[in-house]
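User: structure tokens for this one?
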Amino acid sequence: MTEKELHRLKRGELLELLVEQGELVQKQQKELDSLREQVKSLNARLEERQIAISQSGSLAEASLKLSGIFEAAQKAADLYLDNVRGQAGGSGFGQNPGGFR
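Assistant:
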């Protein structure tokens, strides 16, 4: 509505326009508040997911490190068993309970 048209309106009509505008502003304020709450909620969820992703990366790294430790331990155990078997087969292990020749 142009300024000229506003000047031609009667007081009652102007008041109606003001009431309508006030109601529109209140409605838009409620929508804005609702959207702000949604943004807060979504930001919180995003932060939780980012933390979860960060932790899963840390957990994956820890798992890989542990896997390496277990692999090294398994190799050491296999080597030990091979040595024990080698000693048992070549030196008469088990025949002499004292382990001396």
